[in-house]
Amino acid sequence: MGTQTYDEMIIILSKLITLMNKTEDHDWSSFLENIKTRAINSNDKKETAREILTELYSGGMGSFLDLVLQKDMKFLIGENDQLEEYKEKLFQVCRKIIGENELKIKLIIENMILLLGDNNEVKWSMVFNEFLNKYTNADTRNVAVQEIINIYRGGMGSFTDLVLHKNAKMLIRENDQLAMLKDKLYETCIEYCKNNEIGRLVY
């Protein structure tokens, strides 16, 4: 990955800026220019890639994902094809820079929060919300991963013993999903620790 992939990210941002200028979309051109400048001056490649994914790919009305290029009220077919190509390339390059495991952990935590919240597991939902807050902060990411691994140590009332119920009945489908998320989260956190050479004692 390294410098070559990061340089590729800068090149894609440059192409997007050129495309925005060509179609006279000055707001997006300025926004992307600002991102590119920050990326060039950044000392933390992974954090820059995370910021790009957050700022450009979070979705919502008026977001980068919804951007469609027009000129004189006409839809620009060729330019929009280019735009979609650059969007996808930038997304994939940022994922490479960050690393698959880091993205997986965030996604698994988010899915865990949804599952626990939907099944009235307020205590554990709050615990995982705290994990997510720590994990999305670069300064506390490693701590979050170590704390997640620690909840697999077991014991009465522990996360490993958690079983979802509703009206005194065990929920089969939801518990299958919970078991799958538990396994995936543990595996990806262990892999994260190995890749980053941290927290050997916690697992």
Question: What's the short version?
Answer:
This protein has 203 residues and is mostly helical. It has helices spanning 2-22, 26-41, 45-57, 77-98, 100-118, 122-135, 141-150, 172-196; strands at residues 70-71, 74-75, 165-166, 169-170. It is built from eight helices and four strands.
Gyration radius (Cα, Å) is 21 Å
Which sheet architecture does the biggest sheet show? 2 strands, antiparallel
Q: How many domain regions? A: 2
Overall, the morphology is elongated
How are the strands of the biggest sheet laid out side by side?
A: 1-2
Portion in helices: 55-70%
What portion of the residues fall into strands of 2 or more residues? under 5%
Order of helices and strands: HHHEEHHHHEEH
Number of helices, counting only DSSP H or I runs of 4 residues or more: 8
Spans where pLDDT lies below 50 across 5 or more residues:
none
Structural class, from helix and strand content?
Answer: mainly alpha
Please report the total strand number as a whole number: 4
First-to-last CA distance = 28 Å
Give the integer mean of the pLDDT values. 89
Q: What features would you describe in this structure?
A:
- This protein has 203 residues and is mainly α.
- It folds into two domains: 97 residues; 102 residues, no CATH class.
- 69% of the residues lie in helices and 4% in strands.
- It has eight helices and four strands; from the N terminus they run αααββααααββα.
- The chain has a two-stranded antiparallel ribbon.
- Strand 1 and strand 2 form a beta hairpin.
- Helix 5 packs antiparallel against helix 8 and helix 7 crosses helix 8.
- The mean pLDDT is 89.
